[in-house]
User: What shape does this take?
Amino acid sequence: MSETLIDTEAKSDKADEASVRGRPAAGQDPVKRDQIMEGARRVFMDKGFDAASMNDVTREAGVSKGTIYVYFDNKEELFEALVEEERCKIFQNLYEVLDREDNLRDVLEDFGMALSYKITSDKVVMAQRTVIGAAERIPELGLRFYEEGPKKGHAKVGAFLSRAVAKGLLEISDVDLAAYQLSELCMAGLLRQRLYGYRRQSPPEHEIRHVVRSGVDVFLKAYGTEVFAAQDRARRKA
Amino acid sequence: MSETLIDTEAKSDKADEASVRGRPAAGQDPVKRDQIMEGARRVFMDKGFDAASMNDVTREAGVSKGTIYVYFDNKEELFEALVEEERCKIFQNLYEVLDREDNLRDVLEDFGMALSYKITSDKVVMAQRTVIGAAERIPELGLRFYEEGPKKGHAKVGAFLSRAVAKGLLEISDVDLAAYQLSELCMAGLLRQRLYGYRRQSPPEHEIRHVVRSGVDVFLKAYGTEVFAAQDRARRKA
Amino acid sequence: MSETLIDTEAKSDKADEASVRGRPAAGQDPVKRDQIMEGARRVFMDKGFDAASMNDVTREAGVSKGTIYVYFDNKEELFEALVEEERCKIFQNLYEVLDREDNLRDVLEDFGMALSYKITSDKVVMAQRTVIGAAERIPELGLRFYEEGPKKGHAKVGAFLSRAVAKGLLEISDVDLAAYQLSELCMAGLLRQRLYGYRRQSPPEHEIRHVVRSGVDVFLKAYGTEVFAAQDRARRKA
Amino acid sequence: MSETLIDTEAKSDKADEASVRGRPAAGQDPVKRDQIMEGARRVFMDKGFDAASMNDVTREAGVSKGTIYVYFDNKEELFEALVEEERCKIFQNLYEVLDREDNLRDVLEDFGMALSYKITSDKVVMAQRTVIGAAERIPELGLRFYEEGPKKGHAKVGAFLSRAVAKGLLEISDVDLAAYQLSELCMAGLLRQRLYGYRRQSPPEHEIRHVVRSGVDVFLKAYGTEVFAAQDRARRKA
DNA sequence: GATGAATGAGGGTTCATTCAT
DNA sequence: TATGAATGAACCCTCATTCAT
Assistant: This one.
């Protein structure tokens, strides 16, 4: 009733179709949607697609069953929306460091740290398990996840390496493959241990750093040019 | 009730698990067990743990429901037994090539081929998906799979690398980590594409070979000693 | 909250059910009521009571759920109101022809045509199915439908026949029964075929006419007096 | 093992697929099937197809839900099986009287009594309501019911009338229509009153007899030849 | 007064497990 | 011992009804 003008104004920015002050249209309230997604996240990540029940989601989300079905057509769609969201959160900002104009080794290490840290974190491991576990039954889901996530990231890594090649810092015959190798080297051993649950906790930072440093080192020893080596020696002295 | 002495006598000969001529004890007939396992394999690998029904197993195995429950306490145990068996089949003989006394690069490439080929094959991908997908719900399953499979294999790779270090062919500060790196390099890109279903078919041999060759090359550029380099140059001439 | 006095004043003018210019009282606007009934008709007649959902009605009527529940306490009451209305429409004007002072055979045939045509029409068949199908669960519904519809009509037919008896045209020992016989003869075969869906379309006019003519003929052969026969012969000549 | 030959022989007559002594195959035990049908009958006849729930059937039949689904694929199939069974019971033996070589009026009256009595009985009224009520949603059901029931019966009546025409007892231009007229006349008023629930009880015998006698009389007055009239007068004298 | 988002009991159906045969 | 018919809890989803807006 006594909504301040400022408030109203602020809201109207994103007042897509709901009236400014009224209740959001069915399936349009972003708060409720998030609530459902949060419940779904907890349940699906914990149990996987099949073992999770809509009742579980209902309970975790604190919403009624009917409401969920207003926002999502069925279990599978809810799951897909969740995976989509998780994917975005995972791969967002992951590759920004590659735009930095900096010493090559430092950039690669920073990227490796970001990648390895993210990919072995609790939530992301769960997400990967969930998607991989469902890939047999809902192939499009895994496909889309890979295409929109790892594949796009991989392309950015490839572009970065190409630039380094152009600068004469790296000499690579198959840039695409090299990009895969770099990523795998940065997570060497860690990812699989996490996926299978051999490691119950995400690795401590120093361990990740050790793996990344070594991985980048292997990568640069294999692909670094004499130009890079000179630069690198100079950097170490400093 | 009125078991004759003769019967008892017969059994006592090989009382351990089954009489020589009589019917095997309940849940002890290895033929029937294999029959069940074979049905379970077809069903679980195809549908995953949750989506597979015990009726499916029953049908595929050609055994009655009751019989399955004599051999396995419940669905989960049957599944675990299957995973165990699959794991054995996967990692069996995978590391034999490392015992070969041969040129280092050749041995590594052959090992990489065996590993990469196996790990990206249809059946093994399904098995990995299944285990990874279930790891959140049945942590022991993933744990045991990893410990008895990849981890043991990794130890063998480590031992192999240590021997190469001792021979002066490699110079490695963290052999354990290097072993992981070697494995990851040999499957670079392929495994994840398969797990997520981005690749629907197992990769063709020439592609695997390309990846493995490049991976081994990176590894050897990073860790190979001058001694190895000389040997390698000599081998190439021949 | 701060309704002006003027508004209130305006309402008090015709406080009974609605102000002249203002908004009608809750559940009192006949236009809105008709709108709801029209939606309900489309839905209930198409799907039957149970299979129809209130959401369907909402959509067809273009009214909100809450509004429906202001006009009708629940689904069943809405349905009953609809049946009532349908009944009125069905039996309205159906018996007017019986008031005509005309040749007996012609009047009976015209009545038979009106009855048979109406009772086998798509909408009326649906209505009958719906009421009959619900009669087990909502006995009052069927009872009321019959009493207000067929029974009253039957009384009018009886009265008509009595008048014809008085005129010496018919000789009937049980007029009540004869009235039933007349009605049944006019729809012979058609009604049941329609109710069970054996006939998907309402019968063509010429077929109805054939049935009615024959039915009336049977009726008059059985109950017509010599007086009537003479009249009838005269009429035919003309 | 020691089953007597006699026993085995006797049973093997109907031992279709179940073993002689063993438990009947899934969905094959006629006793259990009847049990389910009986429960379904009570529920469906009472509530109609939509309003009846499988839980209701479960409870009434005293069988578990799973068992029902072994015997019937789904609710609709169970319902159809029930309707089929009811139809058979209703129309079985209904037309035998028409094969009697007897006085025409007596045969018609006896047939009319059988028909009218059966068709207005509690169970049959319920069955008719149920089928008619479902005809909108499951058109095949009503169609099949009509075709296998009333239509076949109607054909038998037509054949009977044709024979009477051949004997010179009746003179009918449209035998098919006359058959409908006969049936309708025998139930005049009763059926509709029962279907709509205006009559809560099945009509007493004397009332049915009154209706049937009058109906047959009308029919014979309309279609009886002079030959028949003479025969009829003779019979009355006796 | 009108709206329609939210509720949650209950719908039909499946399936891991048991136990009489 | 092996069988598979029977069980019933739990699955996903719908919808009559309510009530905050």
Notes: Residues 22-27, 29, 32, 58, 63-67, 70 of chain A lie near DNA strand E (CB under 10 Å from a C1'). DSSP finds twelve helices and no strands in chain A. The radius of gyration of chain A is 22 Å. The CA atoms of residues 109 and 213 of chain A lie 6 Å apart.
